[in-house]
Amino acid sequence: MLDRQDPATWQDFERVTIGFAVPTTTALLAALWPDEHVVADRRLATACIGLLFGSVTSSVHLNGFDPYALEWKDYSWLRESIRLTSHATGADPLEIERALYCLDRLVDPHREAMKRAQERALTWAEYVAHLVGELP
Question: Which has more confidence, 87 or 60?
């Protein structure tokens, strides 16, 4: 049985449900309890990490972080980051989650162009520059 505040129940659910990983399990949690959970997927993780750490880790490449292999510790961090951002800004957590998702999608053309031209991933600093460049 899933409990809204008990990470052990989320992890147990993921283990016994075929095809579920952290992103799918968190999508279910967010559907059940939208005021308390977020969908932890690669777009949310990459945008959140990029905005928070991009300027100080300019030599780190995006391929050093695997957004396709999110773990529960990553979810705890993402969830808390969004909660704190919501508290600091007064914005709804769901709006923050959606904004991060949309921002990361806007970086896709830059990400793909970099891969084609230089056969390397964006650094966090490059990612953040493109991310911030997409802001109105």
Answer: 87
